[in-house]
UniProtKB/TrEMBL annotation:
The chain crosses the membrane at residues 12-31, 56-86, 98-118. InterPro entries: Ap4A_phos1/2 (IPR009163), Ap4A_phos1/2-like (IPR043171), Ap4A_phos1/2_N (IPR045759), ATP_adenylylTrfase_C (IPR019200), DUF7727 (IPR056144), HIT-like_sf (IPR036265). Residues 349-360 have a biased composition (Gly residues). This is HIT domain-containing protein. One of its GO terms (molecular function) is ATP binding.
Amino acid sequence: MGNLVWHEYARYVTLTASVYTVWAGFFGLIYRKFFWDFVNGTIRSPGGLQPAPQDAIFISVIVKAPIVPIISMILGVAIIALEYPAPFFKGTSIHRSFILRIVGLILQAFFAVLFYQFELRHCPALLQKPPLPSPHFDPPSVHLAPDHLKGVDPFLPPYNPQLYVGELKDEEEGIEYVILLNKYSVVPNHFLMVTKEYQSQATPLLPADLVQAYFILLAARKQHQNYFMIYNCGEQSGASQPHKHLQFIPIEDEEGPPIERAARAAHIQAEWKPFSLPNLPFAHHIRRLSIPPSASRDEAESVLATAFLELLDLAISTVRHIEDHPVGMPSYNVVLTPGHLFVSRGGARQPGGARGGQGRGADADLEGRGVRQCARPAD
C-alpha cells in the first residue's frame, strides 16, 4: 500500500512539473532569455546585464531561435501523455518503462533550466536618477524654454559629451534635432531624438518628427539592428521631461516588439484603414504603413502624417465616449515601427462599443479573426 501511495505521489509530481514546463516553454517563446547569462555576464550601467561571448550558442538557440523552449514543451507534452496516460500509451511497454521516465524527466529538467520563465531586469542606473518634481507641460504654443527649465533641462546645451551622439536637420521644414544617449536607460543603446530648440512634450508629432524617426528606424535596420520609437505626449502619458523627445529602443527580436507582431498577424480587409485588436485592454488604434523602400521623403511624409492624424483623431474621439476619463489636454502614446504606427490613449480602457468602418457584416468577420477595423465613433 505504501509503495502505491508513493508511486501515485511521484506521478502527480511528474504531471505537475510537466504542465509547468509546457507553460514555461510557452512564455519562453515570448520572453526569450538565457537564464545563466549572469554567470559570466557583465553588469553595465546603463545597460543592465550583458551575456558573455561564450554564451553565444545559448543566445542563438534560446533568444534568436526558440529551439530550447520548443523542445521543453514537446518533452512536457510527451511526459504528460505518458503519465496521465493517453489511451495510445496505456498498457504498452513504453508506459511501463521506468528508464524512459527517468531519461525524459532529466532531459525535461535540463532544457527547462536553460531559459527564463520570468525575467527580472537589474537597472542600477535608475538609482542615480535624481528625484524630480512632476513635469509641468506648458501650452503647445510655447516654443521657448520656460524660466523654470533653464539650467535643469537635460536636453538643452551644453550637452554631456558622453551622451551626445550628433545632430539631424529636416531640410524641408528646417527643424533641428539632437541625438542623445539615454542617461538612465534600462537597455543598452537606448537613445533619444530631441528637438534642438525647446518644444513642449504636450505638442503632437510634426510631419518632420515622423519622417526623421522613420528614416532612423530604416537606417538601423540596414545595419541589422532592430529599433522601435516611442513618444509619450502629455501629462497622462508617463512622460518625465517637458522638453519634446522621441525614444528609440532596441529589441533583439527581429520581428519587433510584441504589439508589432500582433499587428502584423492581424488580417485586415483594407490596408489603408486604421484597425484595433480587441484582445488588448486599452484604447488604441493602429495603421499599417505601406511605404516602399525607395520612397522619397515627401512620399514617406504623406503616408506618415496622414496615418498619424487619422489615429490621433480616432483616439481623441474614442475617449470622448468614456465618461470617467480625466479631462484636460490630450495625453497619448505613440509607437512607430517600420511596418506600423500605433496610437494609444493614456489611461483609457478599450471601449466595448467601438464600431468598424466597413459595416456590421465586415466587423463580425474581422472580429472573428481577432481584429477590428475602425471608423470614428458616432457623436
